[in-house]
Design a protein that fits this description.
273 residues, alpha/beta, two-stranded antiparallel ribbon, binds adenosine-5'-triphosphate
Length: 273
């Protein structure tokens, strides 16, 4: 048994005596040089609610708390992680596998945009090809000594997210939502899917929850009152954070400076994850 054993054979490639394998599952083995302790999927019911922002913020926050962190951008048709971290170089290989790119503060990142010649090229691929690419990000990328690997999941509950859930050993999911959605329905769908896939729900992040006036500090519910507290209570889920609408957030993502954002709203995240 490896001295780094975390008792989770699905995220380890060691062929040790204590290896337990379920022959019926579809899980892919990670690259043999990878060592990932925890895989966390970030999901949303629909596009544009801030799933990529929350993935980036969770990674930045845990990196600041002293953990080794990676982001696997599984949102192949809408990859926005490299841009928000300001990464323009391309990923390289070393003869054994593909190496993730490192952000300024050391977050390891793999995304389709780090492989495309021109990152404005659209990915016009069928579902199985997209799902196959995500699998390769797990099996052929060397994730070396990662404490937390955050997966920016493809949106929705279709073929691609299903394959990702079945092939990458996700330890838990974070659900991102926003008040203008039909929160209870969207969260309920995510909860049911997680139950079907047997994946624990770590908690919910409500993005674009309110706007704080910079002049008078008053909070305005731009999208109306949300039902998130009741929904969380009825499913016994934790609310990890409520994030404001803040032009600084959009500007930081656009300028590749997500690593400079304030993480105080994710205060106790290290204990929750
Ligand atoms: N709280 C916020 N305040 C201001 N801007 C925000 C906030 N959250 C997200 N944005 C901006 O909204 C846009 C969409 O966010 P993001 O890319 O994170 O959404 P997404 O759910 O990942 O979208 P998709 O599903 O299309 O990939 C980005 O430009 C981002 O900077």
């Amino acid at each position: 048994m490896s001295e780094n054993c975390n008792s989770n054979c699905s995220s380890c490639s060691q062929e040790c005596e204590s290896r337990k394998e379920d022959k019926t599952d579809f899980m892919e083995k990670p690259h043999k040089m990878s060592n990932v302790k925890k895989v966390i999927g970030v999901v949303s019911g629909k596009g544009g609610v801030g799933k990529s922002l929350v993935t980036s913020m969770l990674a930045v926050t845990m990196q600041r708390r002293g953990h080794r962190v990676g982001i696997l951008d599984a949102d192949i048709t809408g990859p926005s992680i490299p841009k928000s971290f300001g990464i323009t170089e391309k990923a390289k290989g070393n003869g054994y596998g593909i190496l993730p790119c490192k952000s300024k503060t050391g977050v390891e990142i793999m995304s389709i945009n780090l492989l495309l010649e021109d990152d404005t090229d659209p990915v016009v691929w069928r579902g199985p090809v997209i799902a196959g690419t995500v699998k390769q990000f797990w099996t052929e990328v060397i994730w070396n000594d990662i404490d937390y690997l955050f997966v920016d999941m493809p949106p929705g509950t279709g073929d691609v997210p299903l394959t990702v859930f079945q092939s990458i050993p996700i330890d838990g999911i974070v659900i991102v939502t926003s008040p203008q959605e039909l929160v209870s329905m969207i969260v309920e769908k995510a909860v049911k899917m997680a139950e079907m896939m047997n994946i624990p729900i770590i908690g919910i992040v409500e993005n674009m929850s309110y706007f704080k006036c910079p002049d008078c500090n008053k909070e305005y519910k731009i999208f109306g009152d949300s039902n998130i507290d009741n929904v969380a209570k009825s499913h016994n889920l934790k609310i990890i954070a409520k994030l404001p609408i803040d032009p600084k957030i959009a500007a930081s993502c656009d300028r590749g400076m997500v690593e400079l954002l304030d993480d105080s709203l994710f205060g106790n995240i290290a204990e929750i994850l």
